Amino acid sequence: MKTKIKQKVYPLHGDLMFKYIFGYQKNVDFTEFLLETIFDYNCGTFKNIKIKNSVKLDRKTVNDKKFETDVLVELPTGEIINLEMYTKYDRNASIKSVMYVTSIFSSQLKVAEDYSLTKQVIQINFVKDNKYKNEKMIKKYTLMEQNSLADKIIPELFQIYVINVASEEKILYNKREKDFYLLMKLINARTLEEMEEVVKGNEIMEKILEEMKNFSEEEYVQDYHAQEVLIRSQHNSEMKELEQNYKAQEVLIRSQHNSEMKESKEEVVRKMLLKGFEDSDIIDVTNISAKDLERIKLNMKEA
Predict the structure, then answer these.
(1) What is the spatial distance between Cα 231 and Cα 237, in angstroms, rounded to a whole number?
(2) At 230, is the pLDDT very low, low, confident or very high (cuts 50, 70, 90)?
(3) What is the pLDDT of residue 269?
(4) Which of 10, 30, 11 is nearest to 221 (CA)?
(5) Are residues 92 and 100 in contact, defined by beta-carbon separation less than 8 angstroms?
(6) 213: closest CA among 32, 20, 23, 69?
(7) Which of 221, 254, 300 is nearest to 63 (CA)?
(8) Cβ neighbours around 22 below 10 Å, total
(9) Sheet arrangement for strand 80-86
(10) Tens of pLDDT, residues 247-271
(11) How far apart are the first and last CA of the chain?
(12) N or C: which end of the chain has fewer CB within 10 A?
């Protein structure tokens, strides 16, 4: 009896899979569904959106890595939404996020164009591992006055969302919010079993998972992930080596510092002895042990 080979499905929080499902014009229905659940809009609200940096993810584009990992969406009304998946969200990712949204925002107009033509830009970051501890599933940021949360600058034009897909916060007030919650769980899921449990009974999410399965079977997709695992392993090994070297240097510096401190203290003790201070006063001032004090006095006599 042949053993059935377990199907491998790459997770939706991976760069390539996230780009394929949400950043490929062929799958634009999935992107529309994602945006409608985030903003709690009715089905059909985000029809006719355009993915500006969509590319066909075939063997050539994947092998040559000729695709951007973010997803730049333009609404029919001209507003821009940029989607980005982060497996780790730290200070560097935060800086990158702000640079992205400001770059997109500032590139809308040509020289001498009227600023009133500026359209809204929203940066949405999906985060798998949030280094900024946050139990909330979704947070929204904009520019505001330091001492007043109500005093904001163009919040209707410039926003950053940070969505913690691993959050346990349950937002299940209506169907749209339930869809959003389940979709984040699908993005967070690692195994096929987890994914199948999440999508069960939800027609469009079952279609998303089916598309993920089909894409995962492509040989060039498997090669891409194998390379990513190797690169990540090498990176982790290098980081571990750097950390070990740093700790070794830290121990050496501390040892040298302690040695210098010890020499400095003994010099103070010698000067106090030469000036005729009592042993009890020297011990009290320098915190040196009686044993070390006797050693220093003996060394001074022999010298």
Answers:
(1) 10
(2) low
(3) 83
(4) 10
(5) no
(6) 20
(7) 221
(8) 24
(9) 50-51, 71-74, 80-86, 121-127, 158-164, 138-141
(10) 555 555 455 555 555 557 788 888 8
(11) 90
(12) N
Looking at the DSSP bridge assignments, the partners of residue 160 are 123, 141
Nearest to 97 by CA among 87, 109, 82: 82
Q: With bands split at pLDDT 50, 70 and 90, how would you rate the model's confidence at 91? A: confident
**Secondary structure of residue 274 in the 3-state scheme:** helix
155 vs 36 pLDDT, higher one:
36
34 φ/ψ sector (left φ>0, alpha ψ -120 to 50, else beta):
alpha
Q: Which residues contact 135 (CB under 8 A, 6 or more apart)?
A: 164, 167, 168, 169
Separation CA 115–CA 109 (nearest Å): 8
71-74 and 50-51 strand pairing: antiparallel
d(CA 195, CA 187): 9
Closest C-alpha to 161, from 75, 86, 106, 103: 86
Confidence tier at 143 by pLDDT (50, 70, 90): confident
Q: What span, in angstroms and rounded, lies between the C-alpha atoms of 87 and 133?
A: 14
Strands 80-86 and 71-74: antiparallel
Q: What is residue 226's three-state secondary structure?
A: helix
Residue with tokens 């929204």: 140
pLDDT exceeds cutoff 50 at 1: no
**How many angstroms separate the CA atoms of 64 and 109, rounded?**
32
Q: What is the pTM of this model?
A: 0.72
DSSP 3-state of 151: strand
Coil, strand, or helix at residue 46? coil
Report the C-alpha gap between 85 and 70 in whole angstroms.
Answer: 7
* CA dihedral angle for residue 29, residue 89, residue 70, residue 8, rounded to 10 degrees: -60
Tell me the C-alpha to C-alpha distance, in Å, between residue 214 and each of 30, 51, 255.
Answer: 15, 22, 58
Check if the beta carbon of residue 73 is closer than 8 Å to that of residue 47: no
